[in-house]
Amino acid sequence: MISLNLNIVATLILSIILYLLGNFLTNKIYILNRLCIPPPVVGGLSFSLIIFILECFKIINISMNTILMPYFMSFFFTIVGLNVSFYLLKKGGKSLIIYWLLCAFLGFCQNIITFISSKILNINPLVALMCGSISMEGGHGYSLAFGRTLESLGIKSACSVGFASATLGLIMGGLIGGPIAKYLIEKYHLKSSNHTLKNHNLQNSKRSLLSTTDTDFFIQILIVLLCMNIGSALSNFINIYFHIVIPSIVGCIFIAVIFRNINERTKTIKLDFPLLNFLEELSLGMFLTMALMSIDFFSLSSLFGPIIFIVFCQVVFIILFAITIAFKFLGKNYDAAVMVSGMLGHGLGATPNALANMGSVTNKYGYSDNAYLVVPLVAAFLLDIFSIPCILFFINLLT
Question: What's the rounded Cα separation, in Å, for the pair 255 and 214?
Answer without folding.
Answer: 25
